[in-house]
Amino acid sequence: MATQMKPVDVVLVGFGWAGAIMAQQLCDAGMNVLALERAASRTTPESFATTFDQDELRYMWRHHLFQNVQYSTLTFRNNVNQTALPVRHLGSFLPGTGVGGAGVHWNGQVWRWLETDFKIKSHNEQRYGAAATAGLTVQDMPMTYQELEPYYTEFDKLCGISGKAGNLKGQIQAGGNPFEGPRSAEFPTPPMPMTYAPSLFEKAAAAAGKHPFPHPSANLSTSYVNPLGAQIGACTFCGFCEKFGCGNYSKASPQTAIIPYVMQKSNFELRTECEVLKVEKSSDGKRATGVTYIDSAGQEYFQPANIVILTAYQFHNVHLLLLSGIGKPYDPKTGDGVVGKNYCYQTMSSVNVFFDDKLLNPFIGAGALASVIDDFNGDNFDHTGLGFIGGAYIAALVTGARPIEMVRVPTGVPGWGLDWKKAAAKYFLRNFSISVHGSSYAQRGNYLDLDPTYKDQFGRPMLRMTFDFPENDLKMAEYCTARATEIARAMKPASASPSPRKAPYSIVPYQTTHNVGGTMTGDNPANSVVNRYGQSWDVPNLFVTGAGLFPQNPGYNPTGTLAALAYMAADAIKTHYVKAPGALVQA
Amino acid sequence: MAAEKSSNAINRRKLLALGASAMGSAAAGSAVAAQALSNHDGMLGGPAETIAGTLPWREGAADAPDGEAGLKYLTAAEMAFITAAADRLIPADPTGPSASEAGVPNFIDRQLAGAYGQGQHFYLGGPWPEGTKSQGYQSRFTPAEFYRHAIAEIEAGVGHIHGGKAFKDLSTDDQDKLLHQMESGILKLDGPVKSDAFFTMFLQNVKEGYFSDPIYGGNKNASAWAMIGFPGAHYDYSPWVTRYNEPVPVKPVGLRGRADWSRS
Q1: What is the pLDDT of residues A540-587, one digit of tens each?
Q2: Most buried residue, A21, A206, A274, A388, by most Cβ within 10 Å?
Q3: A302 touches chain B (CB under 8 A)
Q4: CA A13, A20, A117 angle in degrees (round to 5)?
């Protein structure tokens, strides 16, 4: 029998970036907010101190900060003709768990979508004809870049993002990204300084007529105090960001930027080791009454709330909607239904570059330390005759050089034995990898639903992923990797090894933790799960945040956009919804 | 139904209790590491100890001592296989240490005895049909069990073909030939373990032992880091960021410092 808890105004399911932003915004508006987090509390001095943080084995390979598949996993298959089997060990993606979520172990790469990314379907069809989107189920966002811009800027200020604007209120700025939408403000802190490898890339890209600029970074170039009074320190380039916490308070994360502020609020409460099992509904199904959760002692609780906000990772938000019977599940055979539809990933390719005569010292790094070009992303280039839409940013990213992961050898050198050993010794300090960070567009057969066979620890069906790379995205990867290879060869290296992403998608090698879609936002209930504010079309006191709202994934890291969408939703809840609870957008 | 739910929940509670703290994943399933955890937490009430000569090796908390540390999971025969095979993957030569010179077999033994070997961060529930390559690890076995089955089957095959010899007694050419057959999956093993799946796990574990922090028993005296030029657990490279094409003149250092800081 579930214990009845005292009602709250708002219950948040999950306490990462989106949960922390919602908590801060809604507490400041005077609402009583409770966050339920399935795993443990984590703080910088206790959990990421520099005396034990730089441990590649423990964090990267033993998954210390990641979701533990022993208790929570999903099943996977490439297509509907296969039987999905459990992800028995994390590989391709590394979702977080515990306070701070994946915001603890992110790289800190902060992007905005292009103006045209908000209207992928209409823009591409207008420019290239209706056939441009054939075979894809891409769709426009229910808001413009301009409408989201203030919220992007709010997140930049929260984190103190280091970078250089390329478009300030419509004026193109030297040294920034000339393709980006207009920014209302310059970055809060100056760009990170470049190490040797990105400086070589910058020179080669500029000489080829491209537009290199410093990667926007949540690892800060200088110390910064954010609007909530949190101080974030200058990065020391230890090279342990991605897959690690930051012991130096120099990577903006929920822990450094926002949680210390929220925890002081008398109208906020956080309960850890509490996993939400289901969103409960009223008998007519039109209202969420609260959530049922179980704590680590096995005790069940019912938590009543006026507003329920799903702020967990994308997979779990989709899973909870499916388990709670909210929204119509997507059926790939008929194309009907929306929950689980348009699951997308990120199409990651790379070019490894090896020098004989240059000492690059790639262990000097930071999660977003790069020179990058956006010339081949989105619709920044003419796609006529190319046979695909979308693109990639191309970046000389030097996130560090943790050796178990990053001892690379040139093509043709075997993966073990004496030749491997000699090449590893020769090239470790003399190579780096160019990232080709590509878009992932939706197609009919890629989706999420409930698995018919495998159950989780609570006896609920696991989430099932059906995914392979669409032809469109494979062509994009081929094309953009070839452009990256041209820049690589212009640096006159000893050799360059291009790896354009190929099908089939595999769950094994790490690619990226950019899983999106499944709870997509749109302008009507037939094409989306939630409206522009993340509000459920079916249950108006239920909101969903996160990258699940993306109907497809542009060639950018998702955190900047998912944070902006969370700010926009919070704004709508505190200024409109609380005054007149109900649908914020008429269906 | 209620009983089943609560037994699931109790399992989760126990495991979360172990996984909750900073040293958690090293702690679960390993009494040695749990003791290291309690030291980190400043807990009182542990057994009295006399410490002399060198810091005691608690995996994950201090560097491994020189010489044999004693097997924790592998049998002597399994250790002989691991040592011989690992030294083909990373052989001895003047470039740097071989796998065994760097302590990799010792590392693998400790890993298999600890949380990793016992299946922490692996989902092992059934059913277990054969999967595609894209679906990754689909065994019902923990890594420790997986090693045991694989080595037994490989050695049985070696003995059958080579007149009762063990892998360690083969010529290095024959050893390499077998490793290539395992890598490609051509080597068929009796039982549920596939040779290519084992090879993938083994090569990964060998490289982990070679390049991980010396506190885990491999990468002895940071010798593999010295070979490639990785400085280890340094905290601040700020002065070196824009000094291009220059060597950074620091010696490799692990999380517990350097051997020559504490040993004469």
Answers
A1: 999 999 999 999 999 999 999 999 999 999 999 999 999 999 999 998
A2: A21
A3: no
A4: 90
Residues 6+ apart with CB under 8 A from B261: none
3-state SS record for A75-104: EEECCCCCCCEECCCCCCCCCECCCCHHHC
Q: Report residues of chain A scoring pLDDT below 70.
A: none
Q: Are A193 and B241 in contact (CB under 8 A)?
A: yes
Q: Provide the CB-side half-sphere exposure for B125 (13 A, CA).
A: 18
- Give how far A50 is from chain B: nearest CA, Å: 7
Q: Is B237 on the interface with A (CB under 8 A)?
A: yes
Report the half-sphere exposure of B23 (CA within 13 A, side-chain side).
21
Query: By C-alpha distance, which of B202, B205, B252 is closest to B224?
Result: B252
Residue A505's identity, in one-letter code, is Y
Extract the runs of DSSP E, i.e. beta strands, from A138-246: 167-168, 171-172, 213-214, 224-225, 231-232
How many separate helices (H) and strands (E) can be counted in chain A?
A: 13, 22
Picking from B90, B257, B7, the residue whose alpha carbon sits closest to that of residue A415 is: B90
Decide if A514 is catalytic. yes
pLDDT tens, position by position, A167-187: 999 999 999 999 999 999 999
Q: What's at A183, amino acid-wise?
A: R
User: Which residues contact residue A557 at a Cβ distance below 8 angstroms, ignoring those fewer than 6 apart?
Assistant: A107, A109, A110, A111, A437, A514
Residues in CB range of A132: below 8 A, 6 or more apart: A124, A125, A383, A389
Of residues B24, B131, B233, nearest to A85 (C-beta): B131
Which residues, listed in sequence order, are joined to residue A516 by a DSSP beta bridge?
A: A344
For A490-574, where are the E strands, in sequence order? 495-499, 542-544
Nearest to A103 by CA among A257, A319, A214: A257
* pLDDT at residue B240 is higher than 70: yes
Q: What would the two tokens of residue B36 be?
A: 């290291």
Short-list A69, A72, A73, A65, CA closest to A98: A65
Contact status of B261 with chain A (Cβ, < 8 Å): no
